[in-house]
Amino acid sequence: MFLQQLNPSLKALTIMVFIIFLATIFEPITPLLFLIWTVLITFLFGKVSWKKYLLYFSPFFIFALGMLWTSIAFADPPINPDEAINILSWSLPTENVLTALALALRVLNVAALSLLFVFTTNIVHFILSMMQQLKLPPRIAYAVLAGYRFLPMIRDELKIIHDAHLIRGVNQAKTPKEKMQNYKRYAIPLLASAIRKAERTAIAMESKGFTGDKNRSFYRQFTIGKLDFIFPLIMLIGFATAFFVSKQLGF
Q1: How does pLDDT run across 110-161, given as a tens digit for each residue?
Q2: What are 92's strand-pairing partners?
Q3: Are residues 42 and 163 in the same domain?
């Protein structure tokens, strides 16, 4: 799909720029329209499962509702009744309600932009692109990649240790305190395994001539072409349109 083919660094910079743009908006129409635009772009140009998307988006939605509720619930009573909005039995200042909506929608926009990046970007390609386009030091980049690779291995190692204890009748914990004791027993084997894997990785990298030098060649080359600038243009069109509509509506 189109979003998966873009340069990861340029895509990340574009998303960061629009998050900064949204931080300057204190009315609800622009972030609402831009949120709809971002979600549409994600599903139209990225191969994303809507079930998985909703699963990851739901915590941000709950957090945004909580922010909206607290901002409205603790709003000051209106001084001018003509500038108030009546919600059930509440009379709230119009400005406070609009600001609360803007803050909640800003959270949802940050979530939508972040999920667009996460679901359409390969983390390995992103790190390699940052080394080539953003001049990220290889020492930091490869350390991040190694940590990223180790996480699933540590999870599998934890399961192996847990099963080994279970077979030997050690893992019979029922209360939370006993479970905590079990995890303390897991810590030393996990640490020893992690140290061995880190040592093997360091030896392998050293044997292949890794010195951390920035002037190095790459098997996977990432460049920024004309196609990569279409995404910032599409997002800019969406943001500009949302801003124009908001302005025409008097916000």
Answers
A1: 999 999 999 999 888 998 898 888 888 888 887 788 777 777 788 888 888 8
A2: 85
A3: no
Asked whether residue 236 falls in the same domain as residue 187, the answer is no
Residues 6+ apart with CB under 8 A from 114: 15
Q: Is residue 85 part of a domain?
A: yes
Is the Cα torsion angle 185, 186, 192, 198 positive or negative in sign?
negative
- Print the domain residue range for 78: 3-127+224-248
120 with 236, same domain: the answer is: yes
14 and 120, same domain (yes or no): yes
What total of structural domains would you count in the chain? 2
pLDDT band of residue 242 (cuts 50, 70, 90) is very high
Coil, helix or strand at residue 219 = coil
H-only helix segments in 24-137: 29-45, 50-73, 94-119, 123-133
For residues 48 and 121, the answer to whether their CB atoms sit within 8 Å is: no
Residue with tokens 């039995």: 89
Helix 29-45 and helix 8-23, axial crossing angle in degrees, nearest 10: 160
Task: Provide the pLDDT confidence category of residue 32 given band limits of 50, 70 and 90.
Answer: very high
Rounded CA separation 198/204 (Å): 10
DSSP 124-153: HHHHHHHHHHS---HHHHHHHHHHHHHHHH
**One domain for residues 19 and 116:** yes
Q: Determine the residue type at 182.
A: N
Whether 65 and 159 map to the same domain: the answer is no
Contact (CB, 8 A) for 25 and 31 = yes
Among residues 123, 132, 61, 72, which one has the least CA distance to residue 101? 72
- CA-CA distances (angstroms) from residue 98 to 3, 40, 54, 83, 108? 33, 24, 26, 12, 15
